[in-house]
User: What shape does this take?
Amino acid sequence: MDKKPLVYFLCTGNSCRSQMAEGFLKKLGSDRYEVKSAGLKAHGLNPRAVQVMQEAGVDISQHTSDVIDPETLNRADYVITLCGHADEHCPLIPNKNVVKWHWGFDDPAKATGTEEEILASFRTVRDAIKNRIEQFLKEGK
Assistant: This one.
């Protein structure tokens, strides 16, 4: 059996956006892709991200918040940054065949207001990430 292409989602803290992207691609495309996520730092899994993903039928509660692993980065087929900070500070990727994309999404962890307003921000970002993952799968890349 052929090796599945590895998609590596990167974000600043690997707590929200990259976790959501990992969760959706695992749920919708794990038959086609190996999926991992990491951050420039490990900020811990955001409980609101877990909550809004659960609402969408995706359980990320067992995910871990990890720092970018150079070995995983080097063997990735796709490196996708989800925030400007990670895009600007992504380590040099020695693998010249990697496809690197930037899909920028607002950081829902920076949302302010009532709990419902903050959760609405998380849901907006969640839905935007899901739409982008669906587009990735539809295009076959």
Summary: Residues 115-138 form the longest helix (24 residues). Residues 6-138 form a domain with the Rossmann fold fold (CATH 3.40.50.2300). The beta strands are 6-11, 34-39, 78-81, 99-102.
